[in-house]
Design brief:
By secondary structure, the protein is an alpha/beta fold. The protein has nine helices and twelve strands. The chain is 40% helix and 16% strand. The chain binds NADPH dihydro-nicotinamide-adenine-dinucleotide phosphate, dtdp-4-keto-L-rhamnose and magnesium ion (MG).
Amino acid sequence: MRIAVTGLQGQVVASLLERGGSRAQIIALGRPQLDLSDASSVSAALETARCDVIVNAAAYTAVDKAESDEDGAMRVNAAGAGHVARSAAALGVPVLHISTDYVFDGALERPYREDDATGPTGAYGRSKLEGEQRVLAAHPDAVVLRTAWVYSPFGANFLKTMLRLGETREELGVVADQIGNPTSALDIADAVLEIATRIVVDPSPALRGVFHMTGQGEASWADFAEEIFGQAQRRGRKPVRINRIATADYPTPARRPANSRLDNSKLRQAYGVILPQWRDSVSDCVARLLP
Ligand SMILES: NC(=O)C1=CN([C@@H]2O[C@H](COP(=O)(O)OP(=O)(O)OC[C@H]3O[C@@H](n4cnc5c(N)ncnc54)[C@H](OP(=O)(O)O)[C@@H]3O)[C@@H](O)[C@H]2O)C=CC1
Ligand SMILES: Cc1cn([C@H]2C[C@H](O)[C@@H](COP(=O)(O)OP(=O)(O)O[C@H]3O[C@@H](C)C(=O)[C@@H](O)[C@H]3O)O2)c(=O)[nH]c1=O
Ligand SMILES: [Mg+2]
């Protein structure tokens, strides 16, 4: 199976390149050859790739920067996603599009299901929601996978930020009143390979549409940080104390959802896919970064 993926250095594309193995040949397509904000570059690159499935894993992911550059985020996350889906439809190839927990406002008291009302609190979330809608409108053979709090040995992410800050700090303030599901990009890659394998042979409508896909178990950002530093200490790093602070004490340009936990039942029922427990995958990632 040939899988074309948007982006070159992103966490999910790097993970797919690592995990493709013998199951799939991964063709990563990024700038300048494929620029999501340029429709003709998207269609030309995807046509040349001659693939069986397209994964849209590239995005404008700078959540705070998007607040002052909503047009930029929209060009990539909304218009760009639409270009990918239209090209996939024209080529007759299914598309797998990655989206986010930040499409929700976070006011619900339980994990979000796929049909719960969306209501993004920031520009990034608005652009990603618009992207989902454009993908689903452009192509009936589409799977939208909402994931969250992605980390990996690759690129920039919260886990790597914590390890970097921990090199020079004895304590850190981390918000304890935002809860969600830390998710390993390598686990996302394994699941994407499984889902891609299924959709190329099985046209059932039950396998299309929106699905929530995150690491199992929940955490606040402070819990996540404590787990990272606990694992790091077991690998010889000096301890770092986490001060559990409130969102109000960590001001940022973008407002983030207080609850962004995602209920993964639909994915489990349709595909039989379940991601590992988040603490187990954090351990794998820390072990790679601190061998
Ligand atoms: N990171 C997270 O915590 C979460 C991410 N997601 C979603 O998961 C997906 C993957 O995220 P992740 O791997 O973490 O992303 P990263 O931030 O690690 O990487 C983003 C990728 O997008 C590429 N990119 C950005 N703009 C363009 C453009 N105009 N044209 C082509 N490529 C572009 C980058 O290219 P280059 O390599 O050239 O820099 C890079 O490869 C995204 O859809 C994201 O919205 C969902 C929930 C959480
Ligand atoms: C670095 C740091 C962050 N924080 C807080 C800020 C924020 O509320 C939370 C996480 O910070 P980040 O900047 O990593 O989070 P953020 O960039 O908002 O992460 C999001 O990225 C996008 C792409 C998504 O799709 C989301 O699922 C989510 O992963 O931790 C602290 O409290 N202390 C700190 O020292
Ligand atoms: Mg960030």
